[in-house]
Design brief:
It holds the Pfam family Pyrophosphatase. InterPro entries: Pyrophosphatase, Pyrophosphatase_sf. With 207 residues, the chain is of the alpha+beta class. It has one domain: Alpha-Beta Complex (Inorganic Pyrophosphatase). The chain has four helices and ten strands. The strands form two sheets. It has a five-stranded mixed β-barrel with strand order 1-4-6-9-7. Strands 2-3 form a two-stranded antiparallel ribbon.
Length: 207
């Protein structure tokens, strides 16, 4: 077998898997242990330090994105239709994902197989920025959860608090531009992922 000397770009090179969107492979950038926020560098595919986690905020779950998805025109229109506001656009990034896992995973730059069970409908500066919530496939605790209603309310509140405050700056009154309009279930999560897949194909595949 000829060796592969090149690492695939995590956004474009990782396959979603044959059971997508019901079961997908995702790329993890950030863990609850990380004191800084990492994110993928879109040009190179390497992990970049985005910023130190200011103040006391740390992600309560594993956090990353769904490869080969893109929050574009269809994603933004869907958000507009659901919340009843015109002109919401996709944020131009892959769809974000939060993964619940009782198994200790202590570093990012990792591929996980997960099962989506719900999500947060988040709007950031007028752009759709959904956060899909999933469980690690085979996890002995969270893997038994099939729907967002199975997740303890305290965990949902932690996620909401993190995303509503992780960009806040006490010295900038305009920093709090994030809102979460809805916590939704598995059916809607799969719909959001599918729109992200369609947007990705239109943006990067269709010629």
């Amino acid at each position: 077998m000829k060796p592969n000397y090149y690492v695939a770009h995590p956004w474009h090179g990782i396959e979603l898997g044959p059971k997508a969107p019901d079961e997908i492979d995702v790329f993890i950038e950030l863990t609850p242990q990380d004191p800084v926020k990492y994110e993928i560098d879109k040009a190179s595919g390497f992990i970049r330090v985005d910023r130190p986690q200011k103040y006391s905020n740390r992600s309560p779950t594993l956090y990353g994105f769904i490869p080969r998805t893109y929050s574009g025109e269809a994603s933004g229109k869907h958000c507009s239709d659901v919340v009843g506001r015109p002109n919401i656009e996709g944020d131009g990034d892959p769809i974000d994902i939060c993964v619940l896992s009782a198994s200790p995973i202590n570093h990012g730059n990792t591929i996980l197989s997960v099962i989506p069970i719900g999500g947060l409908r988040m709007i950031d500066k007028g752009e759709a920025d959904d956060k899909i919530i999933a469980v690690l496939k085979g996890d002995e605790v969270f893997g038994l959860m099939k729907e967002i209603g199975d997740v303890p309310e305290a965990m949902i509140k932690k996620l909401q608090h993190y995303f509503l405050t992780y960009k806040l700056d006490p010295n900038s009154p305009t920093s709090g531009t994030v809102e979460i309009t809805e916590v939704y279930g598995k059916e809607e999560a799969l719909r959001v992922i599918q729109f992200g897949i369609e947007d990705y194909i239109k943006k990067f595949v269709t010629v």
